[in-house]
């Protein structure tokens, strides 16, 4: 992790090198090259000066969790031989429109530094970065060995940028475009891949709306014999999908297009046979608009599937049940809440190996009481899936007792994200706050790393969290708590807390300042629509110079209110590209 | 410890809206409520009180109702767009099926409203399906000259006479159809 650069520099790098370190570099570097986890590498670099140096020369991949925590110059200065960079930018709440446009996280300044230091860079993975077409063009033209591009939740570019990548990256193995704010000007970018390009292994354009030229796609798939991941967009119909499957039976991950059609030009059995031919399928997604008639064609491929993403298919309970009967190996399942509690009962019955479940709302903004899933579906899954350790659950009602039962059945939770969509909703049976639910979670699940809370919550929830959640790293809080105590409890406990994001809670300056010494051990803190004032933030900024305390000004609010605050540790100082509405204190 | 002291000193200089309570956490008496974070926040206008709050909770921090809050529920824009596209996209042939009941008939039928382009076509379809005759529609008198009157339930749950609103508005708000007997329907056309 690059965040620890400064502590290493000041604490451990002494003028005299450690005389007792017995391993010469020629031994140390090859050994270290086998270590890939950036956390392990961070630990290695802290051992002594020789190990620090050996580690920095042998590192090939650098992960930067907050692009403003370090400058590109510092990164390239420390690591001379990087082949792969992962960069994350905006705070997570930007996914929900809480961060204004033009906030920052522009990748271009990074690219211009990387081009000089790492001309042979091969991989770039960006999350929540601002990426322009110019940046993509720069990338395509300045890195001759470039192979893998992954863009997740980025924005600012159009399909023209993709054209540049497709045209100029001769060795491209991966193009993974997910959930971005992209200006979709047409599907002709796909036709820009030259005939000579045969190296593609991963192609994901599921989230693009425009139609690509199918002939060109078919030819591309045919000539890229190593293609293992193919996720097409909704415009690809069943007939076309069948042709693609014929060309690429070796796929391990498939994202289909629209999975229904009016005019049946080929018997369903043919399509079923094509799926039967895909013996290596591990992941299946897409399946837009599928129904009882077409869903069964995937059954022959289901035995090997470990990850089924049905979050674009509004299945009903019996359709899901029928499907799951064929999915013996399922480990991860994403569904829409159209499957209802009955669908979740089927999950509990048929998926004993399930480790991850995500239930998304089909109609999150529908005002009428829509059917969805309730606490009983949640409990049903927990009964049948004891290995469940990751859950994301959107519902309209929940009870404390149900959550307590769930965690009793599944004590190994590492990620527990519960979203009761009605704001401030208490336990609907007892009318009490949902404090005891989350108390049960943190008490029963010692491995808990990530928690998102919801419903009517008092400070008691946070007292529980601060007291029991020893391994908690990420906490998301919205519309909860009764007073400063809530935040104080969390900041006073949770020794491993790295990311804290809070919106619309009654936490004020006293609470913020109670965490003074904690923020340097965290990646970031986001607080919006709480009770912070500019003065409170100024005090924090003054006491902790190695933090950037950024306040986003809302035109309408009074001057003393700190409406949106983003605090993060950094060795790069205040950012120089802050837009006018971001005040660094 | 020294750091803590100096921070506490700083508190005196600040304009703090908070108040520290000396009470057991989680106790039931009403906590002193800090001015809500939503006041002065134009973006998410706060409508105090939601139907899910009890009287005791009314005076607490009352969150606004769902539809007025930016970024809630926390569903990514990408996911919102998928579902919306799904709802309005009729090219994939998903149809717009509504239940149709006829007074006196033993079971209900289902009808795809997208198959019809006008009220005239719909009436023809209904007449064929139920082997009945529906009268002619007039704005003033509703349906005259037959034993059956077509009505529909709209988004608000109200039962309306078919034909008053433009066709497009009708198909987007129609949730189900009911063919009533004329004698029962009298009075529907008189509703304001």
TrEMBL record, chain A:
Boundaries of every COI1 F-box domain copy: 23-61
Biological processes annotated in GO: auxin-activated signaling pathway; pollen maturation; SCF-dependent proteasomal ubiquitin-dependent protein catabolic process
GO terms, molecular function: auxin binding
Top-level taxonomic group: Eukaryota
Transport inhibitor response domain residues: 80-126
Location(s), subcellular: Nucleus
SMART domains: LRR_CC
Pathway: Protein modification; protein ubiquitination
Principal subcellular localisation of the protein: nucleus
GO cellular component, one term: nucleus
Pfam families given in the database record: F-box_5, LRR_6, Transp_inhibit
Keywords assigned by UniProt, alphabetized: Auxin signaling pathway, Developmental protein, Nucleus, Ubl conjugation pathway
Protein name as it appears in the record: Transport inhibitor response 1-like protein
Provenance organism: Ambrosia artemisiifolia
Taxonomic placement: Eukaryota, Viridiplantae, Streptophyta, Embryophyta, Tracheophyta
UniProtKB/TrEMBL annotation, chain B:
Pfam families: AUX_IAA
Family listed: Belongs to the Aux/IAA family.
Annotated PB1 domain residues: 95-182
UniProt-annotated location(s): Nucleus
Keyword entries, A-Z: Auxin signaling pathway, Nucleus, Repressor, Transcription, Transcription regulation
Region (Disordered): 25-69
Oligomeric and partner information: Homodimers and heterodimers.
Originating species: Ambrosia artemisiifolia
Coiled coil: none
Domain of life: Eukaryota
Residue ranges, compositional bias (Polar residues): 36-54
Protein's name in the database: Auxin-responsive protein
Function: Aux/IAA proteins are short-lived transcriptional factors that function as repressors of early auxin response genes at low auxin concentrations.
Cellular compartments per GO CC: nucleus
